[in-house]
Amino acid sequence: MADAALAEMRGASPNFRILLVEDEILIRLAMADDLRLAGFTVVEASNADEALNVLNTMPDIALIVTDIRMPGRMDGVGLANWVRSNAPLVKIAIASASIETGMDRAFDAVLSKPIMPSHLIASVRKLLPRAEQTDEETR
Amino acid sequence: MSEPNLTNVDATVLVIEDDILIRMPIAAYLRHCGYRVIEASGSAEALTVLDRTDLKIDVVLTDCELESGAGGFAVARWIRDNRPNIDVILAGSPKRAAEQAGELCSKGPHLKRPYEHTQVEMEIRTLLEGRRKHSQESETSGSA
């Protein structure tokens, strides 16, 4: 998506903090750029261990977008399960090149790689409350 | 977060740091200051980015003692040999690291960890100012 089109969506994107977990830096960089252009605050982690460090120190993560296949002690599904048990209010979007049956029921969203920027932003926005809803809730 | 001297900066900083709890706040601070920031969690990721010459990078801030892969010095040497237009700021604590940093970029900055975020931003700004002056001087001498 062109920068201008993403930037146009910026006004409609409340400033939620998203944790993006992806071990391939060029993919992470592109996804983080798209999310930031759309107005979100993004924290980047290169594996599940880094993500757990963030989740344990930063209580205001609204959504985690994670790749499934990652090196390290825990993959994306393990991370998602940890989040389900320890931070149940955090929404989870799983990204993978090979989506398995049933994943869409286990997680809040499933993103099929390669992910088009427009699809990423639309999926993320669907998972997070709209700004006006948040305003009404806090009134 | 302390308030930086905000101006329109059109510069990209590659931050190489394997401790996310150090990388995340300095990256956030530099973005807050107006820089485009690319985050690398180690030298392998950094070299993947640096190898892409279509990605404009002005300054690299790297930890000297990255735990896996080539260390910060190796990355700095690679940059000196392959992308000499990029300025490098080395950050480290041990004496040996400071000495190597001095040897590697005799006129470049090296920060002792832990560093203040404002100090990092000031070093980046100084390097960018130096580049601007150098490029203006080159243009002037070229047109003379």
Automatic annotation (TrEMBL), chain A:
<dbReference type="Pfam" id="PF00072">
    <property type="entry name" value="Response_reg"/>
</dbReference>
<keyword id="KW-0804">Transcription</keyword>
<protein>
    <submittedName>
        <fullName>Response regulator receiver protein</fullName>
    </submittedName>
</protein>
<dbReference type="InterPro" id="IPR001789">
    <property type="entry name" value="Sig_transdc_resp-reg_receiver"/>
</dbReference>
<dbReference type="InterPro" id="IPR011006">
    <property type="entry name" value="CheY-like_superfamily"/>
</dbReference>
<dbReference type="InterPro" id="IPR050595">
    <property type="entry name" value="Bact_response_regulator"/>
</dbReference>
<feature type="modified residue" description="4-aspartylphosphate">
    <location>
        <position position="67"/>
    </location>
</feature>
<keyword id="KW-0805">Transcription regulation</keyword>
<dbReference type="GO" id="GO:0000160">
    <property type="term" value="P:phosphorelay signal transduction system"/>
</dbReference>
<feature type="domain" description="Response regulatory">
    <location>
        <begin position="17"/>
        <end position="128"/>
    </location>
</feature>
<keyword id="KW-0597">Phosphoprotein</keyword>
From TrEMBL, chain B:
<protein>
    <submittedName>
        <fullName>Response regulator receiver protein</fullName>
    </submittedName>
</protein>
<dbReference type="Pfam" id="PF00072">
    <property type="entry name" value="Response_reg"/>
</dbReference>
<keyword id="KW-0597">Phosphoprotein</keyword>
<feature type="domain" description="Response regulatory">
    <location>
        <begin position="12"/>
        <end position="128"/>
    </location>
</feature>
<feature type="modified residue" description="4-aspartylphosphate">
    <location>
        <position position="63"/>
    </location>
</feature>
<keyword id="KW-0805">Transcription regulation</keyword>
<dbReference type="InterPro" id="IPR050595">
    <property type="entry name" value="Bact_response_regulator"/>
</dbReference>
<keyword id="KW-0804">Transcription</keyword>
<dbReference type="GO" id="GO:0000160">
    <property type="term" value="P:phosphorelay signal transduction system"/>
</dbReference>
<dbReference type="InterPro" id="IPR011006">
    <property type="entry name" value="CheY-like_superfamily"/>
</dbReference>
<dbReference type="InterPro" id="IPR001789">
    <property type="entry name" value="Sig_transdc_resp-reg_receiver"/>
</dbReference>
